[in-house]
Amino acid sequence: MNNFFIDEKVSNKALNAFFRRNSPSGEVHALHVLHHGRTVVRFAVPPYRIEDKRESYSLSKSFTSTAIGLLVSEGKLTLDARIAHIFPDKIPLDPAPQFLRMTVLNVISMNTGHGRCVMHEMNLADDPVKAFFGIRPEYEPGTHFTYNTGASALLACIVERLTGMRLLDYLNEKLFGPLGIEGVGWMTMKGGQAQGGTGIQVSCDDIAKLGQLYLNGGVWNGRRILDRKWTEDVHNPVSDTSMIYPSPDWQEGYGLHFWKNHREGYRGDGAFGQLCVILPEHDMVFAVQGMIGDMQGEMESVYDLADGLYGADDEKLFIPAYMPVSSPADDLSLWSEKRTFGLKDNPYGFRKVEIRPVESESVELVFSCENGDIFIKAGNGIWVRNFIRAQKFKPYLPNEMCTDRKLDCDFSASYRIKPDTAEFVFRFHNCPHTAVWKFSTDDRKLNVDIGSPDFIDRGCEHIEGEEL
Questions:
Q1: Nearest by Cα to 11 from 310, 326, 291
Q2: Does residue 316 fall inside a structural domain?
Q3: Which neighbouring-strand residues pair with 285?
Q4: Domain count of the fold of the chain
Q5: pLDDT tens digits, the chain, 468 residues: what are they?
Q6: Rounded to an integer, what distance in angstroms lies between the CA atom of residue 186 and that of residue 199?
Q7: Cα 176 from Cα 185, distance rounded (Å)
Q8: Dist. CA 200–CA 167, nearest whole Å
């Protein structure tokens, strides 16, 4: 299928309004719309690609929920099963009584009784299940909603306990394979288990397929994957969220790791605008990937696009361009010679950096680390694709996503030069974020300021060095 497809009946005016509604608070990177099971809109905005496998944050929860649904469909699990019975070897000798009464339904509806998210402790523990049982709930299970990514991590551990397989391996066999989805990744906790509530790496197409499976009542190409009852139950609110959140689409209630929408249907969603929206009355599925701050505004734009998707109009289609940065040739000459700087201790493990002009339109950064060099190439006025493995280089959410391990980083880079300053822009293909690294010199001193238009936790905001 073409990487850029818009059905001839789709209204340019409606698509333009969708992008305008989201542009003040961020960027739409990829969009896939299915109507009556058929693709009517499918494209990504360069330099992004529709097939990019991107971290989708809490949209991961809906995939983990689906794994639980598969176990229920297979008769291997019931929602009233007690957590203590699933992990009798993990629970403390003298457990908090809440743990003895806690059920799978309490966990998947975010009603464990904890008053806060416990993911941080689980993520960093050698045994995340024992870490979960080590944090006493403040409330009776089933009586108090807390958006708790640790609950999702526990679901991942349940899947692994009952199947003897890693969560991703189980989903590859039972879900992704039948749906024709390949190459999914999932970040893991220290103990090696999938994070469950975050960290999945999927494409916009993958998200659309998940949504269509639910819209089809669990059937894919004539084959039943999930019980219809599961697909009907996931969006029925178990938890009352009406007094917790200020936005309408977060007040309608939380089901089995899916949110009920306030205008129609239900959804899985992830931070910064990752959406899988199922609209049964329209018979539509919307998959969106981007970097969007106003997710209520994004949801309203989805509803409006669904209502006005078709119609003849004279508007020219306007799709925002995420252009590379550039400098005039005269400015490029300011950093035309190779420069090498020794770096002070920093969380990235970089000991030295060389800035190497390679050709008229590109520069190469070479970071020296304990285990070798990392090469990054950036274009002036053009994007250059890079694949590296580095520690803390890729933007991440604080706490839930923190890790000292080296991670794969897939990004496009461009640069511009100003007097005493070289600015590098990195647009990541395997997460929603953009990072900006600014190298400035004063005599022989180097200062690297690291920021992001996303205003997320970078882990390190400044590196210092001296020219060698």
A1: 310
A2: no
A3: 34, 278
A4: 1
A5: 567 999 999 999 999 999 999 987 789 999 999 999 999 999 999 999 999 999 999 999 999 999 999 999 999 999 999 999 999 999 999 999 999 999 999 999 999 999 999 999 999 999 999 999 999 999 999 999 999 999 999 999 999 999 999 999 999 999 999 999 999 999 999 999 999 999 999 999 999 999 999 999 999 999 999 999 999 999 999 999 999 999 999 999 999 999 999 999 999 999 999 999 999 999 999 999 999 999 999 999 999 999 999 998 889 999 888 999 998 877 777 677 888 999 999 988 999 999 988 776 789 999 999 889 999 999 999 999 999 999 888 887 754 455 667 889 999 999 998 877 889 999 999 999 999 999 998 888 999 999 877 655 555 688 999 998
A6: 5
A7: 12
A8: 11
425 belongs to a structural domain: yes
Orientation angle between helical segments 149-163 and 60-73, nearest 10 degrees = 40
Threshold 0.90, pTM exceeds: yes
Beta-bridge partner residues of 127: none
Which range of residues forms the domain containing residue 456?
329-467
For residue 461, tell me if it sits in a domain: yes
